[in-house]
Write a structure and sequence with these properties.
alpha+beta
């Protein structure tokens, strides 16, 4: 609900109501870029722990993302919302194969 919209945005990541650690061994839902950025960085760290760095990781990161919209229902937004949302499972699978 508070995302930046632009055709030049290359990657989006979940950032609303993401559960994380809270004091007392509890979990709490957090929102914002403070939750989205670690998703992308953590995904890259998973891949780097399995495989040496590669210039292709940026390409794979983008190509493994999922569309943010239903093209048939939202054609007016086709060029406004960027290229996709991070899919950690697909990125790690594609980058380590």
């Amino acid at each position: 609900t508070f995302a930046t919209f632009s055709p030049v945005i290359e990657m989006s990541a979940p950032g609303e109501n993401v559960f994380g650690p809270a004091p007392g061994g509890m979990k709490a839902a957090w929102s914002g870029t403070s939750m989205a950025a670690p998703m992308v960085a953590g995904s890259l760290a998973l891949v780097l722990s399995e495989k040496a760095s590669s210039p292709e990781f940026t390409y794979i990161l983008g190509s493994s993302s999922k569309e943010l919209y239903d093209k048939d229902a939202n054609l007016q937004y086709l060029n406004l919302i960027g290229q996709g949302r991070l899919n950690v499972r697909d990125f790690v699978r594609d980058a380590t194969d």
